[in-house]
Amino acid sequence: MTSDRDVEQRLEDWLDAEARPMPHEALESALEAVARTAQVGKGSRWPAWTQRRAFSRVATAVVVLLVVTAGWLTLGALAPFIDGTGSSPSGSPQTYRWDPVADFRRAPYQLNPSPDSYGNEGVWSYRRSTKSAHDPLDYFLLPVFTSDAWQDRDYVNLFIGVGAADGALYIHPWSDGTVRKHAILGWTSPITGEVSVSGAVVRVQSDCEVPSANVIFTIDRGAETLHTVAVDVGGSATFDLTATVSAGETLYFVFDADSDARCDLTALRLVIES
Amino acid sequence: MDRELVERAQRGDESAFAALAVRIADSMHATAHHILRDTGRAEDAAQQALIDIWRHLPELKDPDRFQAWAYRIVVRAAYAEARHRRLWNLRGAIVPQERSFVSDHAGSVADRDQLDRGFQRLPIDHRAVVVLKHYVGLTNEEIAEALEIPEGTVRSRLHHSIRAMRAALDADARTTLKGGQS
User: Fold this and answer.
1) CA-CA distances (angstroms) from residue A17 to A14, A128, B39, B128, B158?
2) A257 located within any domain
């Protein structure tokens, strides 16, 4: 008969030996999500004297002054572009074009998030959700890079990558019927203004021999859905819309496997233009 | 835990929170993994817990209670992940295989298997108590605070868990002995 103390000792040794550190990428991904997350507050954290009316009036005046000054400075800096004498990074005034395949960085230059071809940091991101709901707080960066794709660590059939030079991004979401982990391409706008978003999604495996649910493709601005379409096996759909974005705001291209992930490999052709 | 670091993070200092996160992440992840016995879900639970800790940190009244409070959040995140898994298993889906995890410190392979089998048979709320006690090293009082249950319930769950683990180990030992004799 084993004694309680012996059981406890064996248990403690086993738990210590089985303890697994948090993977570095997972921690980085969580901290990246934290940076996008506001803290829940219980009222103002400012000192009481800042609540007084006199302070409020002075503060308002200072803010207005700063905004006006910033506006003048910004207009001055943008003047060459406004009158057409300046040039954008693309060489064409006021026209920018983003293509996730052209900007996709292969090994050993991969980054997630990844810059665009204009050198703006963190424009493209390759993510997955942990739940079915479309909640950007739940979108974590895919942690593992193979030669041409970002993928999940455990659900290796959840990936976003490029294939041969055919101009498409290949995406595979994951689902077991109850829990759905979406594959998500993120585009974080480096500009403020209106952009056109156009392209197509194509279910690649048209000869699927087993029943397969739709892939639900959605374009979200943050958590707000702008466009959604269900694509059947072998099917395709095009999209063409405009969206107003602020610098730092993210459009998410969400691939939801629905009730199963069988034959869900999907190609995305996408162009975003300002 | 560094009280000043917690207070700075409470005021919204992201670098202070990052420093805190680095200190607690491994323990959070290991706790979730022990409770869930699933690598992928443990990672999800630990990530969700870190985000929840950041979001609700301003609500923590006593920074000295940070550790127990943080473990409460990771255990809740693990419970939420387990609920998903239970639904998943009910539908008969295939659970992704755990990667093999080998350590020489926990005794023989057979010993580890016995412990693993016995531990997996425990209800999840018992596993949580055992992990907080025998892995994290919290006192019964701290566990009660972390899980928001009476201290008597902590003692009772620990007692039942150790008894169940001992029964599992003894049963496995008898099976091994019997198998060896035949």
Assistant:
1) 5, 30, 15, 17, 20
2) yes
A187 and A267 in a single domain? The answer is yes
Tokens 């004694």, residue? A3
Q: Tell whether domain B106-182 is in CATH 1.10.10.10.
A: yes
Write down the pLDDT at residue A45: 39
Name the residue type at position B33. H
Q: Mind giving me the DSSP string for A209-255?
A: -S--PPEEEEEEETTEEEEEEEE-TT-EEEEEEEEEE-TT-EEEEEE
Domain contains A3: no
Q: Do B103 and A1 touch (CB under 8 A)?
A: no
B166: contact with A, CB 8 A cutoff: yes
CA quadruple A205, A206, A212, A216: dihedral sign? positive
Q: How many CB pairs under 8 A join A and B?
A: 158
The list of chain A residues with pLDDT below 70 reads: 1, 41-94, 164-166
Residue A236's CATH number? 2.60.120
User: ipTM of this model?
Assistant: 0.79
Do A78 and A177 lie in one domain? The reply is: no
Query: Which residues, in sequence order, are CB contacts of A228 under 8 Å at separation 6+?
Result: A216, A217, A218, A219
Distance CA B116, CA B103 (A): 13
Identify the segments of chain B with pLDDT beneath 50: 86-107, 179-182
Q: Which fold has domain B1-93?
A: Rna Polymerase Sigma Factor; Chain: A (1.10.1740)
8-state DSSP, A104: P
Q: Which of A169, A126, A139, A189 is nearest to A267 (CA)?
A: A169
Q: Residues A72, A198: one domain?
A: no
Question: What is the number of domains present in chain A?
Answer: 2
Domain ranges, residue A62 = 50-82
Distance CA A133, CA A73 (A): 42
Whether residue B93 and residue A177 make contact (CB cut-off 8 A), yes or no, is yes
Among A2, A35, A140, select the one facing B170 at the smallest CB separation: A2
**What is the chain A residue with the closest CA to B58?**
A41
